[in-house]
Amino acid sequence: MLPYKTLIAIDREARQPVYQQIANRFASLIREGVLKPGLLLPGSRVLALQLGLHRKTVVAAYDELVSQDWATALPRKGVMVATNLPDVKPRSFQAPASPYTAGPGFSFNRIPSVVTSRYDRLQPGQLIINDGFADMREAPLEAWMKESRALVRRPRYHQRLTYGSAMGSLHLRQQLVHYLTYTRGLSLSADNVMTTRGAQMAIYLTAAMLLKKGDYVIVGSPNYFYADLCFEQLGARLLRVPTDAEGIDVEAVGRLCRAHKVKMLYVIPHHHHPTTVTLSAERRMRLLDVIRTHRLAVLEDDYDYDYHYSSAPILPLASGDHGGNVIYVGSFTKLLGLSIRSGFLVAPAPFLEEMARLRKLMDLQGDNLPEETLAALLADGTIDRHLKKSNKLYHERRDQLTQLLQNRLGDKVRFTEPAGGMATWLTFHKRYPLTQVAVKAASMGLLMSNGEQYGHGTTSLNAIRFGFASLNNRELTKAVGILEKVLTQSAQRFDK
Amino acid sequence: MLPYKTLIAIDREARQPVYQQIANRFASLIREGVLKPGLLLPGSRVLALQLGLHRKTVVAAYDELVSQDWATALPRKGVMVATNLPDVKPRSFQAPASPYTAGPGFSFNRIPSVVTSRYDRLQPGQLIINDGFADMREAPLEAWMKESRALVRRPRYHQRLTYGSAMGSLHLRQQLVHYLTYTRGLSLSADNVMTTRGAQMAIYLTAAMLLKKGDYVIVGSPNYFYADLCFEQLGARLLRVPTDAEGIDVEAVGRLCRAHKVKMLYVIPHHHHPTTVTLSAERRMRLLDVIRTHRLAVLEDDYDYDYHYSSAPILPLASGDHGGNVIYVGSFTKLLGLSIRSGFLVAPAPFLEEMARLRKLMDLQGDNLPEETLAALLADGTIDRHLKKSNKLYHERRDQLTQLLQNRLGDKVRFTEPAGGMATWLTFHKRYPLTQVAVKAASMGLLMSNGEQYGHGTTSLNAIRFGFASLNNRELTKAVGILEKVLTQSAQRFDK
């Protein structure tokens, strides 16, 4: 008999039942060719004794093997490894001749890109200053899981035996109508809403629907780099307008519209990315004039509307008199702690109908389960409650960061407290080049961007977005403390 | 005092705790302007009496309201509606002047499309013949939910405070390497795998990376219509090759490659869509020759590999000697009962690196939680067990459908039993036009395609894919019974 005690290792701490562990291990041994087709397995009594288990556990494992077709039960003889297994054997992992180790034999297109600092997983004791994300530890994932579980257990959930609409779940779209009406004063119906994987897909879809190669697109300077890259990838020519404390220069937008046949304007009205400035109410009014006059298609990316501390949010362009020209984009991704990405897009119905066709070719549609879950959490007030609570929390964190920056970094940096959102735009004095600061900080356990990505399309800004929402009091203090140390040491080197 | 008993309706059967219901209702009344800023709410003792509740419940509700900033607690006076609420009020739902009711003021691109029959939700008693989906009732969603819940409860899950890679979760990609090695004999590493939202996104990404306007793409005739549309949308010119019982005509592929500068071949080796034929082993060998000779980029869409009944699957082209030219696409969407869409793509690493940039612009990346969940279910054998079990079940259903079609529909239809997959390609005699059959069947409670979408790019086929996997014995019998009735009645009309 084979040394089954050695071959079948059992982990009694594992979540998986012991009988399944045994069945899986047998399946692996069969697959690997250790147990050959036609081999008679030991009797359940014998194996139970060898493994120190109850006989019933071994019988259950054999039943599982038979139901999975790895083995056959022979009356009065026992259980035999199946003889008709598919002829798919694992190759050696050292196979020298993988066709994928060489490069591709074909040519392919090149895609514009920026280098972003990326950290997949923190080491214990490390801190990260991110671009402005929510605190995952606060995300309402327990409520999310509870709702999802309740949904899949409902019999009528299973009546949806088919693919749905590329516009997204009707239930979710109806909830979004309600949500956008009472939070943003939008006037719309479910035909005006499409759900997307996240705001980025909404941006891509809109751009792909509007742009042809060579079309002009107006963007801020600086601007959200993934939007810039997306428009460039689709062949657009970017026209940049300056951004100041009141947001993008609307007079400049008007001038460009008179000088060029401009196809689209991309605007971030709340907490412009990266600089966090908010487009003033006055400029909004003037921008609505420009939009109507030039029949300018506007992509309004309002990713940060739900987070406000210093004042109430200003209503989006989409709620104003824009003649059907504003395509409005938002997202729940941050609220859900990046676990589930979920965005939406508001636009005139005929435009969305055509866009749904493109969505279908790119992605068919969204996921049923998360869409229905989000709809339920919007309906029962969970999202609303969560937003209230996190606004309170992030407000405190913003204030704490402001104080820390003032007290500890003094005139080494420059910033304006943002009215809302999750990040402070922090510009470093040019004697502290961020490419060096970031390296030094990392060696001290603080991971941060070196600022390069924010300069895409403009000159180097020597600035980062300091995401404060995901760091608690202790972490903010520690992060600013490390920055203080780095800058002080650099200054000493500089002074020598 | 306001009639709170009428205003605050409580549902004791609801999942939501009573105190939250009360808090939400108060928040709504505040939002709607029924409770004005500055209004003093009734004392907790008084309200508890009116509503017939314990006083602690009302106190909890007031605490919730205060923590959400809807109200302020005044020492020794009670709880007051907040006076500093954001000035965002719901508009009337009858608002006549929505800028979205008019069409858009801007022009936009047109997207190629086909009309598909679509049924979002079945009425009780109705049956649907779908395109070939898994049985959602059998999907391992309980295991899925259990694993997801365990994941979000683990502290280290929250250490991923940042966006990850557009290639997908490394953990999932490692599991896919293992899975693809032992099920398909592929030889690859995690650098060769990208996760996608579903197979459709993998198709779109590949096509967008390879194609320029005017490029030639070879496809079968007929072919999966969403692939055709995707290539057309990207500006490709389609060259069609015939399909017979052994799959696409490989000689014809070779001839086209000699006559044109062909950029890409799209092939579905197992259970070609729509006709379900499998590309024979001999043609695969010859196709590998053609691929190497012409350095032809091949998009191998093997969406149905995991489901085989009559014989073992034939190894994919991707596991053969293709010189790095085969891009291999698969999916777990059907297995997961369409609740979560999850696909993958295998290709040479330098190609995937560039493709990750495009994915970033389209969609940033996948969802962390589902990707980690799928990785865990691959690792612990759940997916493997589920596939074994559903292969057994769908095998029985295929056999039952074959018998039903032979016994009940006789020479009114033509079909070949598929070797695997989830659908039988069913061609109706031309005296039964499917556009009429589908209408008649719907009136009898059987929803089915009228076959139009399968004819995209070819002549009308008067055929449908009869998805058998999602229907149990009773349902298959009922569906074929209705079809029998429809065809018999049509024949009588025809004979008159």
TrEMBL record, chains A, B:
Pfam families, per the entry: Aminotran_1_2 (PF00155), GntR (PF00392)
CDD domains on file: AAT_like, WHTH_GntR
Superkingdom of source: Bacteria
Keyword Transcription among record annotations: yes
Domain HTH gntR-type: 16-84
UniProt KW Transcription keyword: yes
One GO MF term attached to the UniProt entry: DNA binding
Sorted UniProt keywords: DNA-binding, Pyridoxal phosphate, Transcription, Transcription regulation
Entry's family note: In the C-terminal section; belongs to the class-I pyridoxal-phosphate-dependent aminotransferase family.
Protein's recorded name: Transcriptional regulator, GntR family
